[in-house]
Amino acid sequence: MNRVIDETALVLGIETSCDETAAALVLGGSDVVSSVVSSQVDLHASFGGVVPEVASRAHLELLGPVIARSVVEAGIDERRIDAVAATVGPGLIGALLVGVSAAKGLALSWDVPFVGVNHLEAHLYAAFLDDPTIDFPVVVLLVSGGHTMLVEMQDHGRYRMLGQTIDDAAGEAFDKVARFMGLDYPGGPAIDREAAEGDPTAVNFPRAMLNDGLNFSFSGLKTSVMNHVRRHPDDDLADVVASFQAAVVDVLVTKAGRAARQVAAKGLVLGGGVAANSLLRECFLDVCVAENIRAFLPSAGMCTDNAAMIAAVGWHRLRSDGPTPLDIGAIPNLRLAVID
Ligand code: KG4
Ligand code: ZN
Prior knowledge:
The structure is a single chain. A five-stranded mixed beta sheet has the order 3-2-1-4-5, sandwiched between helices. Strands 8-7-6-9-10 form a five-stranded mixed beta sheet, sandwiched between helices. It folds into two domains: 10-125 and 303-321, Nucleotidyltransferase, domain 5, CATH 3.30.420; 131-297, ATPase, nucleotide binding domain (Nucleotidyltransferase, domain 5, 2-Layer Sandwich), CATH 3.30.420.40. It has helices spanning 41-45, 52-74, 93-110, 119-125, 170-180, 187-195, 219-231, 237-262, 278-291, 300-303, 308-321; strands at residues 10-15, 20-27, 31-39, 83-89, 114-118, 138-143, 148-155, 158-164, 267-271, 294-296. Helix 4 (119-125) packs across helix 11, helix 5 packs parallel to helix 7 and helix 7 packs antiparallel against helix 8 (237-262). It is built from eleven helices and ten strands. The mean pLDDT is 96. The chain is an alpha/beta fold. The longest helix is centred in the last third of the chain and has 26 residues, at 237-262. 42% of the residues lie in helices and 19% in strands. Strand 9, helix 9 (278-291) and strand 10 (294-296) form a beta-alpha-beta unit. 5'-O-[(R)-(carboxyoxy)(hydroxy)phosphoryl]adenosine binds next to helix 5 and helix 6.
């Protein structure tokens, strides 16, 4: 297993932390050769959320074919693969175990290194798949279903937490408001579509902690939307969700700009499922122009869970730390390793 991990190294990434079964082949840490994502959204839709046991079983069925397809789409022989990376956490324990076990088995049988990847770190890296030329420091706004954080990235693998949510994550707020309003599951994309038809200035929802540091709070906003709808049942749905979305995005980009100024960042990076939101993408670019810094925006497919970002981080961690011992298990509550 004396593989050299350099620009020519091909890493197979595997992602099964939640409800997407994904495999990808990435060359040299940023060149996506193939990326296959099989979403279980339809399986979970009737439950209005991800059912862990259903997710684990679906990963078991789907992972083999998804990996095979990623190899076929890459047009390579599997003996060309130099390492196998898999998400070890955070996520659903049963779902994670499917990917981790498969990755270890493949690494053993191909006699190549295995590397365990932190899913949060992978979201931080998703934007670099499109543009790997980074000048540090950069500030990453990571907004997903489970996390909302502002992270200063001082170098590869070196992070400082600048702020995070004290209650709900931004994606969670989107999902909860969508559910309350009777919109489709998953809620984020449904609100994004509906808001396009509405007036974002129709209701002036509160911007919690807007002028107060770099932490976030979204649970009060969700309650405000519910109270507003109860008091004004005849208000146009599109206006209400457009106003809600505008409030979330306003807080996110204001704080991202403030964080960038605070650490004299050379760029702002967006990551996580909510990075697919059209208003957030637009306002994020505006704030980068206003601050005169570079914008790193993942392509739509790289915002939500995928395995290309896992393979990319796997490549970097293999170079910095070497392979992960095979006795590592799934770590459902894994956090981002930060300095001070
Ligand atoms: O990163 P991700 O795929 O999974 C986690 O690691 O959490 O993020 C999923 C979250 C969900 O809350 C979903 O509603 C939200 O991202 N999301 C969006 C959009 N697309 C996905 N939120 C707002 N607008 C979107 N277009
Ligand atoms: Zn994710």
